[in-house]
Specification:
The complex is a heterotetramer of chains A (about 230), B (about 300), C (about 350) and D (about 325). Chain A is mainly α and about 230 residues long. In chain A, about 70% of the residues lie in helices and about 0% in strands. Chain A is extended and about 70 Å long. The mean pLDDT of chain A is about 90. Among the domains of chain C are: about 1-30; about 35-105, no CATH class; about 200-260, no CATH class; about 275-350, no CATH class. Chain C has a four-stranded antiparallel sheet, sandwiched between helices. In chain C, a hairpin with a 4-residue loop joins strand 2 and strand 3 (about 90-100). The model of chain C is unreliable at about 45-85 (pLDDT under 50). By secondary structure, chain D is α/β, with parallel strands linked by helices. Chain D has a six-stranded parallel sheet, with helices on both faces. In chain D, helix 6 links the parallel strand 2 (about 155-160) and strand 3 (about 190). The termini of chain D are far apart. Mean pLDDT of chain D is about 85; it is low at about 40-55. Classes of the chains: A mainly alpha (about 230), B alpha/beta (about 300), C alpha+beta (about 350), D alpha/beta (about 325). At the A-C interface, helix 1, helix 2, helix 3, helix 4 and helix 5 of A face strand 1, helix 3, strand 3, helix 5 and helix 6 of C.
Chain lengths: ~230, ~300, ~350, ~325
């Protein structure tokens, strides 16, 4: 029973949603679901926060290796939560001074924007910037002409890499007009518009069918592994 | 290929290419850091930038905005956050600058939670600093962020005020002069989206542009990673496309050229993209070099293996 | 001392020495200046508010009839606010600080050395140094895992988890759920311009609240299985929605876009056929259609990749590899731009080595 | 209550309700086919002027006739899947081509057991309203079951609270069905943070510290794909990735040992299950693909004929019908 009811909920919800796309009266059902989902996800933050607190408190109480870092995580989590939830130091919006919480957390000079600007931004964008290093090491290691597939992969990457900088202009810019299609910057656009379009289109069509089949497996109750593996 | 494959190689008998093949990847990291930081220092000190030759897609963006009559409404969607600002901010700055210089009326929206902040910053840097005559509410307005991704786009098709009931100052949409005649998205002759992923330009095409292709033009700026997915839509659905910092630099140079005043140097904030093409060039050459070295090693080893 | 520890020590020492040297040359480094502005607002008169609220549902009409109480609660949360009672109502004033480039500070100092309008901001200067520290700490991960990275990692996890929780609360729960269920409260405290919620919206939010409570039931000792219901609803509805949207926008639209003629005739301005352009356009279409069909052949599951299908699948894989190579090449550009932005932060904002935006008049 | 339970169980064990579904599908198919036909007839000149202005449509409020083609497609795919499942269940053998990445799953899990290290499973960075996350979780169910059988530990850091809860349910049930309920620990499935790069910072940090022997990346990924894959490569882990995010496929292809590309990713769970019913759905997918290929071929043919001999009435009509079938 504990598995049957959720399955029926999924089936009924799914079919109803599918049908609603075709009924003009119910066309906004999808948008409504998006709202409902966002609210549920926001409420579920309590569960995530609980899990986060639990894992670090356990580490602390067990004095696991690196428990000091758990203090940092927990402390920064609680402080940020406190500042943000209560809008500490945020003035009301000048248009509505009578509403105490009308000010935005993002106001310049607030503690919240300090956290955002001097902690979140440098930490996350530097993490993002690590990719520049990883594309280099991945290209060095993986782009070797082992077989036809690999040659095509690295050859295209090579053309695009060169074609997207001034180097491409210098190397092939002197090509006469009738051969302008072979200039690196034009070649890379041609690759984009023909090969890349073909590849992406097929991938998209495949994905659409894959999504449809995955969805139907769930809605027909064939695949229940998301409810837990097998037929237990 | 894992290093374990070569465990039986005698260390003293290793040839140059085997040593090079097993080079610690941290050397590659160091080379990459130098390739990026060197040109930044050099350009920062000398102030020189590389010339740009605009490609078709970037020229189309410029023309789409240029051909609009003054006071036209433009919907600008900031679908990125500060994490991608390095790549997209120069485009946003130049796009807003061209719109402001053309005296178009701009409505800023954001479908990414932090997009609203980025839009606010762009408004400050371009409109408030350099076009102070433009008034918030009459000439431009920042509607802030709305949660809901595609749902917001679909809502825009039918009811703008419902999708964005108030602006970022808290003013109700019905009280904002610039939006007096706006009922739905089709009231905007041009849509600009600057996007770093989902939701972004692709969703705009799927949900909004495909619904009224003939009534609304669409130009997009995107990160390098999403450019390949958007090229199939160019030039039918997406009239103009700025791909990554290269597209931004091309477009920036066009905007700068069109707004150039003799004897006045372009403000440095309008040269961001062109400045960043310097490190791009050296880093790209490094990547090309790495691929070549990798293959030289590969063929050298293959020959040794065959011999 | 291990070799790694020695390396760290050397790197650290060289770095600190360079930093000290940098601090002694020229204008120094890493300071943030701010400019003070005073903001004064007048609270709407209680009587005026009442009449406006009674008149119509104007956006500025506040549901609150007790302006003074809200002022008190505002005071509690924002310590620097001072409020004074005037005949017409109550005014509130506070100070705001905006960041200004060092150039403005220098100019202001030159004009009046005793000015206090533009000052060095200690919180922001410390923030800037912290940001630089975090940037370097994350970069240090490229060399090896180390305590600096671990500190940065612990911090980013804690701060960002709370950050998104707060965003979820103020940007989703408050306007959507509380705005629909307790509009009066939201209007008086957060968003006076809130539009009265529709019935349907209220029903959906009650539903969302029920689902949310079911999710949280898991925290109770008994009956945690009920949280499977909201999850099942989400999974089912997602499946239903995505089937429709993917078939429509990916399958049908993409297939329709591929039905292109294999022979194209391109005419130039004078109306004559341009043979070269036509040929190239035709080749492009042939390649495109072949590519789509071959790639689809690669995805066939119930047919072994042998014979014709095998050949097509092989061509399909080639197309996919070209697609991936192109995407890789394009992406490199973006990734380098991101690194360049971080390096610029270090060199420009923090070390003041370069000044591309002419903020310090170098 | 008891009776309802019995009825429901009966329905589900027999799968006979699928007959009902099929009949429903067929019925709706016929209904909508006639609707399409009638719309074709009434729109004889085939001039679409009212597409973008929904206010002018006079369609009955219970069905949006502009979406007839879409409806037909969904019914068609649904019918193809149902019939294939039916055939498969009735004992007709299904041959499914080898998918290398999925053949490697058992070995990869076994390797973790041998080395005494853990398995890392990353279910993407999106929430439960993304179908890729759902597909990633179905895959997690399979991998966790194998891991339970091999007695390997599996770590699942998640980026969303709801995904954490769903993953816990999935893994718990997998351990249960593998007969190792005692081996399940909810604490290995943790919520880290909603922030993309905060999550990445934690996951790569723990990767270099714990050195998992095998890493699975199954779900919706963005920029973090390459950070994960390169870090995994540096610690010498076997890496199997699957995503439908086409912008990230190049990185997984370049840096992982095996990659499930797009549709393969959605087929993974069915493939691994080995159940005839699930494999049947893969054939249903193929029927859909075949239909698309045929339609494209016909459309290309018709439009080419039109270029060579403009105003061929038959070709014009045929192309129009094709465009209508594809919702154009």
């Amino acid at each position: 029973m504990k598995r049957i009811i959720p399955m029926w909920i999924a089936i009924i919800g799914g079919f109803a949603m599918m049908l609603s796309s075709f009924i003009p009266l119910a066309e906004s059902a999808g948008e409504m679901f998006a709202d409902v989902f966002n609210v549920v996800a926001a409420i579920a933050f309590v569960l995530g926060a609980g899990s986060l607190a639990k894992q670090h408190l356990e580490k602390l109480s067990r004095r696991d290796a690196g428990w000091g870092y758990s203090i940092i995580t927990l402390g920064s989590f609680l402080i940020t939560l406190f500042i943000g939830m209560l809008k500490i130091g945020i003035h009301p919006n000048p248009s509505f001074p009578q509403a105490a919480y009308s000010g935005s957390n993002d106001a310049e000079g607030s503690a919240w924007s300090w956290i955002y600007e001097y902690m979140i931004t440098p930490l996350t964008s530097t993490m993002f910037a690590l990719l520049a290093f990883f594309v280099a090491s991945a290209a060095f290691r993986a782009f070797r002409a082992k077989n036809t597939e690999a040659i095509l992969l690295l050859g295209t990457a090579f053309i695009v890499l060169l074609g997207r900088t001034f180097a491409g202009v210098v190397l092939t810019g002197w090509f006469p007009d009738w051969a302008s299609g072979l200039r690196l910057e034009n070649l890379s656009i041609y690759v984009m518009q023909v090969f890349n379009t073909a590849g992406n289109r097929a991938i998209m069509i495949g994905i659409a069918l894959g999504v449809a089949a995955t969805g139907l497996r769930i809605l027909f109750g064939i695949d229940r592994s998301w409810l837990g593996g097998g037929d237990a | 290929m894992s290093a374990g494959n070569f465990n039986n190689t005698n260390a003293s008998a290793r040839s140059w290419f085997e040593r090079l093949d097993r080079v610690d990847r941290r050397w590659i990291f160091l080379l990459m850091f130098l390739a990026v930081s060197g040109p930044i220092l050099w350009i920062g000190v000398t102030g020189k930038t590389l010339p740009e030759a605009p490609t078709l897609a970037a020229r189309a963006v410029f023309q789409e905005i240029d051909q609009l009559p003054a006071r036209s409404l433009v919907l600008i969607s900031f679908d990125y956050d500060p994490a991608s600002a390095g790549e997209l901010q120069p485009m946003a700055t130049s796009l807003v600058r061209q719109c402001a210089a053309k005296n178009l009326r701009m409505v800023f929206i954001a479908l990414w939670p932090l997009g609203s902040q980025v839009a606010q910053q762009t408004i400050q840097d371009v409109i408030r600093d350099d076009y102070p005559a433009l008034k918030e509410g009459d000439d431009f307005v920042n509607m802030g962020y709305q949660a809901g991704n595609e749902a917001v786009m679909k809502l825009l098709l039918t009811d703008f005020a419902k999708a964005f009931p108030k602006d970022s100052r808290g003013e109700a949409t019905s009280n904002i002069p610039i939006l007096k005649d706006v009922k739905m998205a089709s009231n905007f002759p041009l849509l600009i989206s600057i996007s770093a992923g989902y939701p972004g330009s692709k969703e705009w095409v799927q949900y909004v542009i495909s619904a009224y292709n003939d009534k609304m033009n669409f130009v997009a700026g995107c990160t390098g990673v999403s450019a390949p997915q958007l090229y199939p839509y160019f030039p039918q659905q997406i009239a103009g496309l700025l791909g990554a910092i290269k597209g931004a630099a091309e477009y920036e140079s066009m905007v700068n050229e069109s707004l150039e005043v003799d004897g006045v140097a372009t403000a440095p904030k309008y040269l961001q993209a062109q400045r960043r093409m310097g490190p791009q060039l050296v880093a790209h050459l490094l990547m090309v070099g790495l691929i070549i070295v990798g293959n030289v090693i590969f063929f050298a080893r293959k020959r040794r293996g065959a011999a | 001392m291990t070799r790694q520890a020695k390396t760290w020590l050397v790197i650290g020492a060289v770095f600190v020495a360079l930093l000290v040297a940098r601090g002694m040359i020229g204008q120094g480094l890493g300071r943030v200046y701010v400019k003070r502005t005073d903001v004064t607002v007048t609270l709407p008169d209680a009587a005026a508010v009442n009449s406006a609220a009674a008149g119509a549902s104007s956006a500025s009409a506040s549901a609150s009839t007790s302006a003074s109480t809200t002022a008190v609660s505002a005071q509690a949360t924002a310590p620097s606010i001072t409020s004074t009672s005037l005949a017409s109502g109550t005014t509130m004033s506070w100070q705001e600080w905006k960041q200004v480039p060092p150039l403005e500070f220098i100019a202001a100092q030159k004009e009046n050395p005793a000015q206090t309008e533009i000052t060095l901001s200690w919180p922001r200067t410390i923030g800037l140094w912290l940001a630089a520290f975090f940037t370097l700490a994350i970069f240090s991960f490229l060399y090896a895992d180390n305590p600096f990275y671990k500190i940065a990692e612990s911090l980013v996890v804690g701060v960002s988890a709370a950050y998104w929780g707060v965003i979820g609360f103020w940007d989703t729960l408050v306007p959507k759920m509380f705005g629909a269920l307790t509009p009066g409260l939201v209007k008086s405290l957060v968003q006076p311009s809130l539009i009265a919620p529709e019935m349907l919206q209220q029903i959906s939010m009650v539903f969302a609240l029920i689902l949310g409570v079911m999710m949280l039931w898991r925290l109770l000792p008994r009956g945690g299985w009920i949280s499977a219901w909201p999850l099942a609803f989400i999974v089912g509805v997602t499946a239903g929605l995505k089937i429709v949207s993917h078939v429509e926008s990916d399958l049908m639209a993409q297939a329709a876009a591929t039905m292109k003629p294999l022979i194209v005739s391109v005419t130039d301005a004078s109306g004559a056929t341009n043979i070269w352009d036509s040929w190239w356009a035709s080749v492009a279409n042939v390649l495109l259609v072949t590519g789509v069909i071959c790639c689809l052949a690669y995805f066939f599951f119930s047919v072994e990749h042998k014979g014709v299908v095998g050949g097509a699948a092989r061509v399909g894989i080639w197309y996919l590899m070209i697609t991936f190579g192109a995407a890789f090449g394009f992406t490199v550009m973006g990734r380098i731009a991101l690194l360049a932005a971080r390096v610029e932060f270090l060199f420009d904002d923090w070390l003041w080595l370069i000044d591309p935006n002419h903020l310090r008049g170098l | 209550m008891r009776i309802t339970h019995k009825i429901l169980c009966r329905i589900f064990t027999n799968h006979s309700w699928k007959c009902v579904a099929t009949f429903l599908c067929m019925a709706m198919c016929c209904a909508s086919a006639s609707a399409l036909l009638s719309s074709c007839i009434s729109n004889a000149p085939l001039v679409d002027t009212a597409i973008a202005t929904p206010t002018t449509t006079t369609a009955p409020p219970w069905f949006n006739s502009e979406k007839t083609a879409l409806f037909l497609w969904i019914v068609f795919i649904g019918a193809a899947v149902t019939v294939s499942v039916w055939l498969a269940k009735s004992g007709r053998p299904i041959r499914i081509r080898r998918i290398a990445a999925l053949e490697a799953v058992d070995n990869a899990v076994g390797r973790a057991t041998e080395m005494g290290r853990s398995i890392l499973f990353v279910p993407g960075i999106q929430d439960m309203d993304n179908i890729q996350t759902v597909a990633g979780l179905t895959m997690l169910g399979r991998v966790a079951k194998t891991a339970a059988e091999y007695d390997a530990t599996i770590e699942v850091p998640t980026c969303r609270s709801l995904v954490m809860e769903a993953a816990r349910d999935t893994v718990r049930a997998s351990y249960l069905s593998a007969g190792r309920a005692d081996g399940f620990s909810a604490d290995r499935i943790t919520y880290i943070t909603d922030d993309q790069f905060g999550y990445v910072a934690h996951v790569v940090g723990s990767m270099v510290r714990e050195k998992p022997a095998t890493c699975f990346y199954m779900g919706c990924f963005f920029a973090e794909s390459l950070i994960f894959a390169e870090t995994g490569n540096a610690i010498g882990a076997i890496q199997i990735a699957g995503t439908a995010e086409s912008s990230q496929l190049p990185f997984f292809v370049a840096a992982c040992d095996y990659t499930l590309i797009g549709e393969e990713f959605f087929a993974a769970s069915a493939y691994l299950s080995g159940e005839p019913a699930q494999l049947g759905t893969l054939r249903g997918q193929d029927v859909g693909k075949f239909a698309v290929v045929v339609l494209i071929a016909l459309g290309v043919l018709a439009s080419t004929i039109l270029v060579m001999a403009p105003n061929t009435a038959a070709a014009v009509w045929f192309l129009d019908v094709l465009q209508k079938v594809l919702g154009g």
